[in-house]
Design a protein that fits this description.
Blueprint lengths: L2 E7 L4 E7 L5 E5 L6 H7 L3 E6 L5 H4 L2 H8 L3 E4 L31 E3 L4 E4 L2 E7 L8 E5 L2 E5 L2 E2 L2 E2 L9 H10 L9 E4 L5 E2 H7 L5
Parallel strand pairs: 3-4, 4-5, 5-6, 10-13
Antiparallel strand pairs: 1-2, 2-3, 7-8, 8-9, 9-10, 11-12, 13-14
Keywords: Hydrolase, Metal-binding, Zinc
Protein name: MBL fold metallo-hydrolase
Cofactor: Zn(2+)
Length: 208
Amino acid sequence: MLTFQKFALGPLETNAYVIVNAERTHAVVIDPGTPDGALLRKLDGLKVEAILLTHAHFDHIGGVETVREKYGCPVYIHTAEKDWLTDANKNGSSRWTDVTKPISGRGPDHLLVGGEELELLGEKFRVMHVPGHSPGSVGFLVGDLLFSGDALFRHSVGRTDFPGCSQELLFKGIRDHFYTLPDDVLVLPGHGPDTTIGEERRDNPFVN
């Protein structure tokens, strides 16, 4: 059985997740927003199989290079944002200088399109492309855990006032992908508290 730990990182309290296999030997990291010491200590002694990015806004990628270099793990991102890791203008860090320095690292190792299943930690991670908050936003479903990035929050949704955003696409993606999942699927968002698919389908004031 997989276990996970959440780390709220940086000035925007972006949720990063470390998922560990039942044997406690291997891990996957989702959205390492800063090179946080507690997150790195959690990874010590583990084989890090991958960094999975729900999208490449600066507050989700600030720790990517540190984790990738320290643990020698590949980075996965949607093809629509394949050059955002290397471009501080596209990932937004050049415009938010009051909270971050410009972020520009290496490009991704693997590109996602949505619909594929990744074999990691002995489990299948299903990739759901839900654009709207950003062109390449994805969710990762493994078992009854949905890592929703900034697409779906508890009783809220991601912002759609950035370049390349679309409220229409975001709402459609949530309905077509996330809301088709069982009620008891645990939603682990990019910011804020956990929720469930059932609660959001019932109580989310933006998408119902």
